[in-house]
Amino acid sequence: QVQLVESGGGLVQPGGSLRLSCEGSGLIFRAYTMGWYGQAPGKERELVASVTSTGSTNYADSVKGRFTIYRDNAKKTVYLQMNSLKPEDTAVYYCNAAITSRTSYWGQGTQVTVSS
Predict the structure, then answer these.
(1) CB distance 50 to 35 below 8 Å
(2) Which residues are bridge partners to 23 per DSSP?
C-alpha cells in the first residue's frame, strides 16, 4: 500500500526556518504530483505548494518568496524548505501524492508552530 511519511516539523521562532520531508513508498513516485497542504487551527486544509512530475511548481500567494518545494525522485522524497517563518504559518502540514483527481494519498501530517 501507499505510504507517505512526513518529518521535520517543530517549534520555531518568527523569522526562523524549517525543512519538511515526505518520503513515499508503494508508488511510482516520479509519476505523481506532490503537494504540501497546511491546515491551521479552525481553518480548512489549503494547498501551500506543489510540484508536478515534470518539475513545475505552484505556491500559495502567502508563501511565495519564502517557501521552496523540491523533489528527489531517487529518494522518493519531496521537501518543503520554509524560510522567514511567520506566526500565521502555524499549521499541521500534510503531504499529498496525486496522479489523477480520483487517485490521491495523504500523509499523517507534521505540526509546525511559529511562536515567540
Answers:
(1) yes
(2) 5, 77
Q: What is the pLDDT of residues 2-46, one digit of tens each?
A: 999 999 999 999 999 999 999 999 999 999 999 999 999 999 999
Tell me: the pLDDT tens digits for 69-96?
A: 999 999 999 999 999 999 999 999 999 9
Distances in Å between the Cα of 92 and the Cα atoms of 10, 12, 54, 71 are: 10, 14, 27, 20
Nearest to 47 by CA among 114, 102, 106, 115: 106
Q: Residue 34, Cβ neighbours under 10 Å: how many? A: 27
End-to-end CA distance of the chain: 40
The dihedral through the CA atoms of 88, 89, 94, 97 has a sign that is: positive
Query: Using CA atoms, how far apart are residues 91 and 67, in angstroms rounded to an integer?
Result: 14
The residue type at 40: A
Query: What DSSP character marks residue 81?
Result: E
Name the grid cell of 16: 526562523
